[in-house]
Write a structure and sequence with these properties.
It is a single chain. 17% of the residues are buried. The protein has a single domain (24-177), classed as Alpha-D-Glucose-1,6-Bisphosphate, Chain A, domain 4 (2-Layer Sandwich). A hairpin with a 4-residue loop joins strand 3 (65-71) and strand 4 (76-89). Strands 1, 2, 3, 4, 5, 6, 7 and 8 form an eight-stranded antiparallel β-sheet that branches. It is an alpha+beta fold. It has helices at residues 2-21, 45-58, 142-148, 151-177, and strands at 25-26, 32-39, 65-71, 76-89, 92-108, 111-126, 132-134, 140-141.
């Protein structure tokens, strides 16, 4: 009986340790962060950089991610994006707000890391036409949102941040495995002279 209890405790602690590895945490600035490091043996820094840049340009719908910094020498890519979160009340669901974030990608020979951070919640409000629009001038950092939002909504928003970060991280990993196509060059049109034949 003792062995069974010890085995159960061991299994549960292992599950908790795995769950903590892939979750939101706090960084050195006390901001929420989703951080992953991935080994990509046999690939050089330039290749990983180009694949990361290809991800930032093509993986998101137009206007959903804005590239803010590219430094090929340092192997750094930075972008800003956002996604919409909904809020449910009994049967109805409405637009809760928008969460903006910053994505960082750093590459080295044989590995890369990425993290999502600087999450800021902007609530939606109804305008005079009954449309949901962003409330102007209101941006609540998620670290402060615990005190400013309903506890239930705050927990839902954190779950959505984690789900969105995992989903985008999986897409990034698939782009880092793909061979990125070379940039297309425009073919020069051939000039034909109708005078000589």
């Amino acid at each position: 009986m003792k062995n069974i209890v010890v085995a159960l405790i061991f299994i549960l602690s292992a599950k908790v340790a795995l769950a903590q590895k892939d979750s939101l945490a706090f960084d050195e600035r006390n901001k929420y962060i989703y951080y992953q490091t991935v080994e990509q043996a046999a690939l050089v820094k330039d290749t990983l950089f180009n694949r990361g840049l290809n991800f930032m340009r093509k993986a998101y719908p137009k206007g959903k991610l804005k590239i803010t910094k590219t430094d090929e020498a340092a192997g750094v890519l930075t972008g800003e994006g956002s996604f919409v979160v909904t809020k449910k009340a009994l049967i109805l669901s409405s637009m809760g707000g928008q969460i903006a974030y910053t994505l960082h990608i750093e590459v080295k020979d044989g590995k890369y890391r990425y993290w999502f951070t600087d999450f800021v919640f902007s609530p939606y409000t109804r305008d005079r036409y009954g449309m949901d629009v962003l409330q102007p001038g209101v941006g609540i950092p998620m670290e402060d949102a615990k005190n400013k939002l309903d506890k239930k909504d705050f927990a839902v928003y954190l779950d959505k941040i984690l789900a969105n970060s995992r989903q985008n991280g999986a897409v990034l990993k698939s782009y880092m495995l793909k061979i990125s196509s070379a940039p297309k060059t425009d073919k020069a049109l051939k000039k034909i002279s109708t005078k000589d034949w």
